[in-house]
Design goal:
The structure is a homodimer. By secondary structure, chain A is mainly alpha-helical. Chain A folds into 2 domains: 45 residues, Arc Repressor Mutant, subunit A, CATH 1.10.10.60; 141 residues, Orthogonal Bundle (Tetracycline Repressor, domain 2). The first copy, chain A, contains 9 helices and no strands. At the A-B interface, helix 8 and helix 9 of A face helix 8 and helix 9 of B. The structure holds a DNA duplex.
Chain lengths: 194, 194
Amino acid sequence: MTVTARDRLLQAATEAFAEHGYGATTTRDIASRAQMSPAAVYVHHATKEELLFAISLAGHEDAMRVLSAASAESDEPIERIRAMVRAFSDWHARNSRIGRVVQYEFGALTPEHRAVIADLRRRMEQHLRDALVAGVDEGVLEVADVRGTARAVLSLSVDLVRWFEPSGAHTASELADLHADLAIRMVRAPSTPV
Amino acid sequence: MTVTARDRLLQAATEAFAEHGYGATTTRDIASRAQMSPAAVYVHHATKEELLFAISLAGHEDAMRVLSAASAESDEPIERIRAMVRAFSDWHARNSRIGRVVQYEFGALTPEHRAVIADLRRRMEQHLRDALVAGVDEGVLEVADVRGTARAVLSLSVDLVRWFEPSGAHTASELADLHADLAIRMVRAPSTPV
DNA sequence: GTCTATAAATTGATAGAC
DNA sequence: GTCTATCAATTTATAGAC
C-alpha cells in the first residue's frame, strides 16, 4: 500500500479537525501537516467541506462495517449485543480522532452531505434496536424503553472519543470489554443466568 | 432580576459556541446575537477566550452544585447514585447548549484556564467514585473497575448534549429517570432486591 | 457603555508557471 | 500535481467620538 498525497491529506485533515474542530482549522494548517503547499489541498478536494465529508463518510462506513460484522458473530441476543458494544467501543477507542470528527462535526456538513450521514446513523441505531427487540422477544432481555436504551448504549461507546488516550488507564481492549459488560447489565433480564 | 448587557452577551456567546464551536464563532456573530456592536463585546471581556472561560467555569460550577445537592439527598448508596445520575442527566438535558460548550470546548481554553476547569472535573468524577466505593463496601454494589465504571456512568449523562432536543422523543425528566435506572443496573450487586 | 470606522492580520480559494 | 504569488473577503481587536 503506497501512501499517496491524498492519503496524507486525509490524515492531516483528520488530525487538525479532531484537534481544533472543523471551523477553527485553516487550510494552511492542513497543508502544512500534509507537507504540501496551501494550493495543493485544492487539487484533491474542491472545498474544505468536501474534505470533511470524505472523512466523515469513510468513518461512518467503517464504524457501520465493524458493527455489522460483530452483529453477525452470534444468533444469541446477549452475545450479539456484547459483541456489538465491544466492537463499537473498540473502534471508537482505536480511531478516536476520526471518531471525534465523525461525532462532533456533523453540523458543519452541507445539508446534502448531512442527509447522507444521517441515513447511515439511522441504520446503525436501528441495527442495535433490532438486537434489543429480539432479546426482549426471546425473554433474555428486559428493556422498557428500546429507543432510549439503544441511545444510552451507543453513548457509552461514542463518548469515549471525548477523553480516550492510548496512554491512559485503559487500553482499547480493556475499555471495550468493560463497556460490553456494563451494556449487558443494563439490558439483561434479572432471571437470566450469568 | 434585570437582564444586563453582560447577561445578553453570555447568552449569545453560549448559543453561538454551541452551534458552530468556539473556533468557528466570530465576535461579530456574538455581538449580533446580543444586539450590540462588535466593539461592545470587548467592554465586557478582553478576549473571545475570556468569554469562553466565563461560560465554561459557570457551567462546570452549576453542574457540580447540582451533583453535590443530589449526592446529599440520601445516605443509601443506590439511592444516592440514582439521584446523582438523574440530576446530572437532567442538568445536561435542560442546559444542553451550555453542556456542549462545557464538554466540547475544553481544548480551546488557555492552559491556565484549562487547569482550573480540569480540577473541577476531577472533583466531580471523584464524587461519583466515592459513592461507588461506598456501595461496594456496603455490599449493595458490584463494581470491578470503579474508575472505568464512573467514567461510563458520566458518559451516559454527558453524551446526551450531542443529540438532545427538547422537542424530541424524551423530555429531560424522562431521560434522566431512564439514565438513573440504567446506571443502577450497571452497578447493583445481583443479590440486591429491586 | 455604546457607537462608527478602521487597523493589522488571517482566511478560503484561485491564477498561472513549471 | 506541485509550486509561488496573490486576490477578495473576513477576522480579532482597537481608536476615538458621544
